[in-house]
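tool=predict chain=A
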Amino acid sequence: MIPPLMLDVQPEHWVLDMCAAPGSKTLQLLELVQGTEGQASTGLVVANDADIKRCNLLIHQTKRMNSPCLVVTNHEAQSYPMVKRTTDAGQELLQYDRILCDVPCSGDGTMRKAPDLWRRWTPGSANGLHPLQLKIAKKAAQLLKVGGRLVYSTCSLNPVENEAVVAALLKHCEGRLQLVDMSQSFAPLKRRPGLVTWKVRGKRAGSKWFDAWDQVDPSDPDAGGLVESMFPPLEGSETALSRCVRVLPHHGDTGGFFVAVLEKTAELPVPASHVSQNARKGHQHTDNDKSDHRDVPAPTPAPAQASAPAREQAIPADGPECTEASVLETTVGPSDPQDQQQGQPEQDGMQEQGPKGILPKGQDVVAPAAPREDQGTLDDTPPSRTVLDPPKERPLTKSKKSSGVDPIVPVTDLDLLHSIGDFYGLSALPYPLHQCLISRTPGAPVPKKLYYISSSAKELLDADRRGSLRVFSVGVKAFERQSMKDGSVPCKFRLAQDSVRFLAPYVSKQRLALRLSDFRALLKHRCLLTTGNESSSVPLLSDPAAVEDLRSGRCGPGTCVISIRKDDTLEPIVESGLSLEEFTVTAWQGAKSLNLLVGEVESSKLLDALADQFAPAETKENKGESRKMRNRLVMWMIDESVVIFHCDAFR
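tool=predict ok
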């Protein structure tokens, strides 16, 4: 899709998708941040949506990536919380390198693929959405770093939802946000420049059109719901608005949409109302202190203490140097350090239906918990360089639950961490296990599931000390608890397929390399016999090197990581876009067999990818022709269905 591409996302960027559901653009952003290495990236994608059900859909769409760099939050975009983090220079506002604002819109640009919109669309639909769209854009500008890029997009062609919002945003930012000229980028894309003049109509049916705000009479019934920001700006901003991108459906046989690319050149100005409100709070606090101690003799002030007038001077004054970040530094967070330690997050329930509903069974969701003095934190520093040395073990108290949402707690059990690290040979991780593993079951003797998070996701969770972010989901499932009656496997957790592409490069034990024929047989039959005679339904492992690894104990019983052995005779023709490292699966080695621990859908996809990558040329040509015939049949069936639908509709 075009809007994520215009963001120019790099693997090290922190990206915020403010209105992410259903998740197609978020998945595209994840691919850009994750890169092609298949390992944890220093970047981060925060996907937000205001609707709980759409958050579930968002997680379902992005589950194909299984990325530890994804954090899903549930907030209204116009009220997205401002988080502060502590750095060497002090506390600073957490901002993002790239922000995508694909805001809610009337959707009149999608009428070709959604003809039912014709019955619901009205000329006043855009007027009702304009204030919300402008609030979301303003919040995005606050959360954007200086030098960062913001993309505002809609699937609408109404200028009230598009150019009017951009013009009002530029006016609000007072030159600290500039439109980027994208006319030379994406040359094959057919587009039109943004509008510089337009008319506005009231919500009521049959309302008249207005050319400018000065023509609007508040007493006029036709002017109901109109605001000044809906109209073209009076100053000369034609050059700026013409840099917007309009894609019309008939130009490229696509849907219609609007895109505006903006860059932040300086911190935004602070409204005078915010500064005066903070000043009033400071005066009230000073007066309360005086009234509370009016009967107590005033102690002699120490030289290092600041007096009340000095505190008042610390409040930013209304002036050109006063920025949004400077005011937030004085207002965000508790003033009392004790309150900061005991602050509890506001966690809303993640319901499937209704405010008191419960998530569907099998949904993997984690949410952050506020750090406590008696609870391990994600930023604990290990006392030594050993990868498995966690901080001193502290008792995990069961954190407060809210509407069925489990909090995030770090895994600090020393025996558990050592058993996992020793069994799989995780001795070369970029950061210790206690920093990249989290759990959803605080207080449990043995957690049921352990989740893998990237360093960037950990940094975000550490910065949110007050729990202002309502985290819906974070991390990918890394380990699952297993039960062995005979106790033959020393590790209580098996490696999950969801995170094998990230952890496999660091696994030095429990690895098994198979020949291509055996690997394909394992995917097809989901089981390979390691001893005994080959049967009609289950083949026998024929790779001598793999059989020797199993017999010698280099790959013991339990979960193992299986990949394709690199062979000089193996000459892949890369068509599927996957490298040999991508063909990595988990399996359970029993006494006499290898059993695949991958779902049938995923194993089928891997088989198709193997066929595309290693099949002979003539087989590929035949397969390509069969696919073309199948696609033609599908298109014919769709066309026939559309014709029948239209005939039934007008019958």
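The longest helix spans residues 617-649. The chain has a mean pLDDT of 75.
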